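Reviewer comment 2.1 asked that we show a complete input and output for one of the modelled complexes. We chose the tryptophan case, as it is the one discussed in the main text.
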Amino acid sequence: MSKPRLLSGMQPTGVLHLGNLEGALRNWVQLQEQYDSYFCIVDWHALTTLAERPEEIPHNVREVAIDYIAAGLDPEKCAIFVQSHVKEHAELHLLFSMITPLGWLERVPTYKEKRENLQIESVSYGLLGYPVLQAADILIYKAAVVPVGEDQLPHLELTREIARRFNYLYGEVFPEPEALLTPAARVPGIDGRKMSKSYNNAIYLSDDAQTVTQKVKQAYTDPLKIRKNDPGHPEGCVVFALHQIYSKDDATTIESECRAGQRGCVDCKMQLAGNLNSALDPLRHRRQELLAKAGQLERILKGGAEKARAVAGETMKEVRKVMHLE
Ligand code: TRP
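Response of the prediction step:
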């Protein structure tokens, strides 16, 4: 196997939505063909926000795994696994924490933001170390590429810095991974803000057709378009933004009809709901197939963890050796 290796992951802080699908999963499904791919569900990272409600995590882990597979990740082609099933990540995180200057971590934008937004008096040690654990996730597989959104670039840069520092101190063990930037798909939530589980505006991959239609009916449209034949302003209309993704071929017609007052919002929404449901049907089908086989999901995650552990174990042997820990 000479394909370059790829690793990426998501936190199981909730079930996945259209933003996750268009912003990451569709891309991963393509990439699994070209790379030796590892897709992780980072449950330890989720503890940075769910430490007081850890009982929510197992359900989310399961749902995210189902969403991965429903979206088209194929366990025959890639490893799908749970971070906490491969304890080696924790060992590497500990060793990296010894060589990571505090200043590097305090500068990370996601940390600074969380610290300010949450206005927590004292943030946890784990939150500060979040990117060190992420570096361990990536480097333990010696991943060449990491598909991520733009928000993750500082974490990737830190990963590269940790790799360089480790190699400088102990010898060349880790290649420096490259970010594979996922073209940012702008998927608005039904209220017009960014789609997010915390805004309660998301359409989930696991929503049934009726729920999707219901949510589309509630979606924010041009407030100046009151009657069916009022001319509309597609810019800033959630329904139009979603048409651009899910009704691609018709988007220009939809836009001109809306502007000309030839299209009512109710019909426009019903058309979108139909197309969205068609786009989600293959996912629903794969979800059903997976769940119809008792124990299948557990077997997939077990197999994924075994495959991951084999690689992680080899890397840790090298790491322990150069750090005089054997
Ligand atoms: N920090 C990433 C996010 O919130 C999740 C993550 C953890 C990750 N470890 C990773 C992503 C390793 C890519 C590679 O989206």
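The chain has a mean pLDDT of 95. We note this here for comparison with the apo prediction described in Section 3.2.
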